[in-house]
Design a protein that fits this description.
The chain has 268 residues and is an alpha+beta fold. It has one domain (6-254). Helix content is 16%, strand content 38%. The protein has four helices and 15 strands. It has a twelve-stranded mixed beta sheet with strand order 14-9-8-7-5-2-1-13-12-11-10-15. Strands 3-4-6 form a three-stranded mixed beta sheet. Strand 11 (164-171) and strand 12 form a beta hairpin. It is globular and about 50 Å long. The chain starts with 5 loop residues before the first strand and ends in a 14-residue tail after the last strand.
């Protein structure tokens, strides 16, 4: 049986700052996985979900990739995979991203899972956004589950654009786990983790999630700014946003060390 054109991923994200002081917070999340070659099928899968139009839950193509309607998502994604010498040979590309809820939303990170013709996972694109409207992607080959790349993108005024990221991704049909560690010369300064499980994208699921997380569309943005305010109040150093680098793609490689802490204590 083929996978549905779209489905939900429900779970939690945990953030832990480790220097110069410890600060931890978590909140529930809801993401949508969509087959970018079956967007039309996803658009009619359920009444309360739409593609490129306003609805209770919506996916907008221009929120991702080139963010330009003239560049199809597959064309953009295949070009990024090609930069890392990853060939999909026409295999499926499934995008897991934060949707718009009641017209609002923000995607701090989106995952592009690139498969070969036989369904084998060949590569992943970590598409990172900041609240200033900028984006950068880190491209990693599979089947390795842990990758690292030099930090090349300004994501927060409270972190320098230096050091490296270590990504640990464990995707399966029944569980999605992602850990992103912020590493510097003095060790790890921050770790963000995500743990989610799939749910069918139906009207019933959407209504349940709307009642469980009624402000989820704006909640991510609110959480980011609220935590930033708390960090500022505790004296965290504030960094001026630099001009974004012209190169918007970074290539990741196998991580040098294996130690990783998820920070998640509850099962999704």
């Amino acid at each position: 049986m083929s996978a549905p054109a779209a489905r939900y991923w429900i779970g939690r994200t945990v953030h832990r700052r480790e220097t110069p002081f410890v600060r931890r917070f978590s909140h529930a999340i809801a993401m949508v996985e969509i087959d970018i070659d079956r967007i039309c099928d996803a658009d009619v899968q359920t009444k309360l979900f739409s593609v490129n139009s306003r609805n209770v839950v919506a996916f907008r193509e221009t929120d991702h990739g080139a963010r330009n309607a003239s560049v199809p998502l597959r064309v953009w994604a295949e070009a990024r995979f090609a930069e890392a010498d990853i060939g999909l040979e026409g295999g499926a590309i499934r995008l897991i991203a934060f949707p718009r809820i009641l017209g609002h939303g923000f995607a701090p990170i989106s995952l592009w899972l690139g498969h070969g013709p036989d369904g084998d996972l060949r590569g992943v694109i970590y598409e990172v956004h900041n609240t200033f409207g900028e984006a950068h992607v880190y491209v990693s080959p599979c089947p390795e589950i842990r990758h690292e790349a030099d930090k090349s993108f300004f994501v927060s005024p409270f972190f320098e654009v230096s050091g490296r990221y270590r990504f640990t991704l464990r995707p399966s049909d029944s569980r999605l786990e992602l850990v992103v560690e912020n590493l510097g010369l003095e060790g790890r300064s921050h770790v963000a983790s995500l743990l989610a499980r799939p749910r069918p994208l139906t009207d019933v699921t959407i209504i349940r999630q709307l009642f469980a997380m009624p402000l989820s569309g704006l909640g991510v943005v609110f959480a980011i700014h609220w935590q930033a305010l708390l960090l500022w109040a505790r004296g965290a150093r504030y960094h001026i946003r630099p001009v974004q680098r012209a190169d918007r793609t970074s290539l990741a490689k196998a991580a040098r060390d294996a130690a990783v802490t998820t920070g998640l204590r509850k099962r999704a």
